[in-house]
Amino acid sequence: MPLKSNTQSISTSPDATAPANTTAPSRRHPRRQFLKSAVVAGSAIAIPHIVSSTALGLGNSVVPSDRIVLGGIGIGNRGSYDLGCFLDQEDVQFVAVCDIKEKQRQAVKNRADLKYGNSDCDTYRDFRELLTRDDIDAVLIATGPNWHCTAASYAARAGKDMYCEKPCTKNISQSLLLAETMRRTGRIFQAGTQRRNLPHFAFACELARTGRLGKLRTIYAHPAGMTTKMSGWVAAEAEPPKEEVDWDMYLGPAAWRPYNKQLLDGFNFEKGGGLTGGGVLEWGSHCVDLCQWAANADNTAPIQYDAPDEKGELVATYADGVKLVIRNDGWLKLGSCPVRFEGDDGWIETGDSGKFVLSSPELLAGREVQEIGGYPATFHVRDFLDSVKTRSQPKANAEAACYSHITCHAANIAAFLNRTVKFDPVENVFIDDAEANRLRSEALREPWRI
Amino acid sequence: MPTPFHFHLSGRIRLTFLLSCFVFWFTASNLQSAESEQPLIELLASDAPKADKAITCKKLAVWGSENAVPELAKLLPDPELTSWARIALEAIPGDAADQALLEALEITEGRILIGVVNSIAFRKSTGAIEKLTDLLSNQDVGVASSAAVAIGKIGGDAAAETLLATMADSNSELKSAAAEGVILIAETTLAAGDNVEAVKLYDSVRQSDVPKQRIVEATRGAILARGADGVELLVDQLKSDDRVMLNIGLATARELTSDGTTDELVKSLDQLDPFRKGLLILAIADRGDDSVIPAMSELSKSSDVSVRVAAIAAIQSIGDVSCVDTLLDSVNAENAEVADAAKMALANLSGEDVDAAIADRVEDSDLREAVIELIGKRRIAAVPALLKAANDADASVRSAALSALGQVASINDLSVLIDRVNDPKNSADAEPALDALRAACVRMPDRDLCAEKLTTAMDNASQTTKIAFLEVLAGMGGSKALETVGDAANNGNPKLQDAASRLLGGWMTIDAAPVLLELANKADNPYRIRALRGHLRIVRQFIMPEEQRPVMAAQALAAADRDAEKQLVLDAVKRYPSIAMLKLAIEVSKTPTMEQEATQVAMVVAKQLTASEEAMTLLKELHYEPIDVKIIEATYGAGELQKDVTKAVRNAVGDIPYVALPNSSFNQSFGGDPAPGEKKLLKIKYQLDGKEGEAVFRENTSVVLPMIP
């Protein structure tokens, strides 16, 4: 076939037949990003090692001193998947797990011990004990979203680098503190937004960032629901022994409520602070994040957020006029977590199928983009581990995660208040808007702090 | 809970529809606009349940004023409500909230006190320093540590003095927290432009007996605050045998922005071993300063592979035309890592004249193949050189040239590739020429003109080549390409018919639908089933005006004489429910072998149409009997990662064998993804009218339980 199956345009848009942009893409990349940009700038988008594998300690056999010693915090469903990606890496040694659930601790320990043929994986109920270990270089944080930012902050202050699942923060204040803490402590932080390291998403963002689509006009993100919501305070049940389920540690920074088994679902517990949660944040931390990258907006955020319209579409506007449309419908069938970028000279849409649709096949000329469906995190984990070794910033670094999360939180606030809000991404405040500004943060339950 | 409601229809038909709503332990906030403050305050003062008081605190965080502070303050000693109260008190502007928190320092202890301290820190209550200082001697180390950090967050000269004294106390258990506080003050001081004072603070921490991470943070700050004078301290870290200190050196090498820093870092490379040198080269490149290009070019000739690869990677980022020859010197390196890095760098090098400098080397015998490849990758307009190389005696050079032509040829150059495919002088050229032709054709802005050229070329082509040209046309798309492929599908030549009908079946635009339908309606066409399925693929998968889809589906149904294609019509009906589509399902049900399946689909569609009156009327034609549906067990996941979703599935069934999940995403419906990144299955054990069955459904598909004979 002339093209790979993923490269054919199925668009009925008039743009699809428009002459394609023939302007060569800019090849100058912003400072501090070249390693990551290089990944997508090559003629074949795979995920190559730019640094010598020798320098990274990735020879045929990795000596112990080249290994990154890893601990895991909150290793449930998602964490188990992430952990598998780490365990596949030759230069990782997983030595400790912390979980508030005894069954989970044991399951992870058994898995690690089976892999290494020993019984060395230690278990902890309190992650602070795990963080005191000098031999641990980095941690995988895959607790429920309630804990992410707080646990990341403790890990940073303990001198650990971290791969932290998304959503990484509960509100705007946490987003800013997260980035500030990582800068101050000199830590490497990788948000679990692994689509930044998948070839088709990286290619789509590259087309937008480098001007191949012409002047960028509108970018689209799928939030997977727009309902803002908060977890409730349900009827008290008898609390299990702490060794079995540590309810106090489970609640962590979330305001107190009595034990109820129904609440033991970290994935859904307290996703957002203030009165807002869920909503745009759930998938926005992926899709909006990709839009931020596409719009060269890793260090800023839209300045205006309109309330969702009757179709549930929410439009945010960047300072340069680019529109971010957060919508549930209107997507080509390219899998979950779709994004679409439209410029004056073309557009691209892609999703978790690994496939993408272009306004013109010429946008793909000279390129091969691997079709990787199913949103694996392997490449993202590798990016993190390389950054731990080189101290270069990974693709989903704290600064990028900060502003993609701020964008989601601000959109949620507009949805919650059901009106337009205006945001200053330099001062990080809503303009003349006390209500919105009071939703920027939420007190943590004692004794936790960021 | 799900809300059941019943339709009582005439005759034998009674359908119960469950309008399932997503019920979980979330409760959507009922607060959608500003609430009056006074009732909220009164609720706090009442005997209302704590749960109500908790949510009230959250409301007051947005809409409360100083008037709410007294009642909120009363909740601070309550271990179950203190955190809720602080949510409001942290947010309410004005001195009253500050004062309430200060007063709470006197009446709380332990964890609750820590929470109050943290809230004071969040509000940066400058008047709290004295009381927080008192807490540094609290017996509870947690309290004292929180106070130390809080003092740091609030900042100021007095705060710094207090914390420096605490940090200096060799017996203090608060060293780490005090150091954290000092660093926080130093950060604020530096941000305010007082570098001298910031250096003092950072150095105080560096010289103290505090945990290493505090030393790391202070060292970073000390380097940055010193500006250009910080390079020496930075280089000390780069030389350190302690990997942690080396790491902070590498981090600050990227952060320090003072004039002259880049030069100093480059000079320091000579002091480092290859391992450190490679890492620092990467950090220098991240600074984006092109003054280091000569140094990087020199380093790209290093005898150490890691240094060489790092330098080449740096050149890729910051290099210019002056680096072309240097990089070309490495493309044939024995070490594959070096050669690959050089090729990648050349493919991505920016700057004016880079293209010309690369193309100028095309005649260098040692570099010819690599340069030709680069011409293609960079899409350099060097067609004459490529045409010449396409006739080279060396097959690999010819192949590279043809491949590059695929990337750079214009419409006027296509004939070279077409001729090479049609009549290759050397058989080895046929395949690369065809690949190049494919690549070239999909790039052409004028697809129809390109298709015209290919169509003309087909006249004199062999059958194999004709098929290859058809494939190129299909890859391009466009009206002329469709016309040519459509003609071939009607051609008397069976092999061309086979290829063309296959290509039409995978056509990527909906204008192929009429062509496919015409083929499907030709009784003597051997590929009429394939054509019909291609038509149905468009109906099922493509974007089109919604009124067009049922029309096309009806046309397909009229042409279908096998159950397999009728099932595809039903699939389209399920995907795009509408009254028109419902009518089609009822039409399909008239085929006896399809009656049961079509009835189920009709039920599903009717339900999705929220049981409109018109849909109900149509359903009467199906003589549907309600079924007793019981869900025995349901699990969702992949491999060992399974989630029990029995309850959710039970909530989503009524008296039809259809599971109406609240969301088309199974993950959303079942409260999370039990096996992220894996292909998941929903397994259901069930009973229909007492007969037991099992069914498995792929993720996010319609869940229609198969009937049990």
From TrEMBL, chain A:
Entry annotated with the keyword Metal-binding: no
Gfo/Idh/MocA-like oxidoreductase bacterial type C-terminal domain segment(s): 232-450
Ranges where the Gfo/Idh/MocA-like oxidoreductase N-terminal domain occurs: 73-192
SUPFAM superfamilies on file: Glyceraldehyde-3-phosphate dehydrogenase-like, C-terminal domain (SSF55347), NAD(P)-binding Rossmann-fold domains (SSF51735)
Presence of the UniProt keyword Kinase in the record: no
One term of GO molecular function: inositol 2-dehydrogenase (NAD+) activity
Keyword annotations from UniProtKB, A to Z: Oxidoreductase
Annotated segments matching region Disordered: 1-31
Coiled coil stretches, renumbered: none
InterPro entries registered for this protein in UniProt: Gfo/Idh/MocA-like_OxRdtase_N, Gfo/Idh/MocA_oxidrdct_glycsds, Gfo/Idh/MocA_OxRdtase_bact_C, NAD(P)-bd_dom_sf
Low complexity composition bias: residue spans: 11-25
Biased composition (Polar residues): 1-10
Top enzyme category: oxidoreductase
EC identifiers of the protein: 1.1.1.18
Full protein name: Inositol 2-dehydrogenase
Organism of derivation: Novipirellula herctigrandis
UniProtKB/TrEMBL annotation, chain B:
Cited PROSITE patterns: HEAT_REPEAT
Job of this protein: Catalyzes the hydroxylation of the N(6)-(4-aminobutyl)-L-lysine intermediate produced by deoxyhypusine synthase/DHPS on a critical lysine of the eukaryotic translation initiation factor 5A/eIF-5A. This is the second step of the post-translational modification of that lysine into an unusual amino acid residue named hypusine. Hypusination is unique to mature eIF-5A factor and is essential for its function.
InterPro entries xref list: ARM-like, ARM-type_fold, HEAT_type_2, PBS_lyase_HEAT
UniProt-listed Gene3D superfamilies: Leucine-rich Repeat Variant (1.25.10.10)
Organism: Novipirellula herctigrandis
Leader sequence residues: none
GO molecular function: oxidoreductase activity
Stated name of the protein: HEAT repeat protein
PANTHER family, alphabetized: PBS LYASE HEAT DOMAIN PROTEIN REPEAT-CONTAINING PROTEIN, PBS LYASE HEAT-LIKE PROTEIN
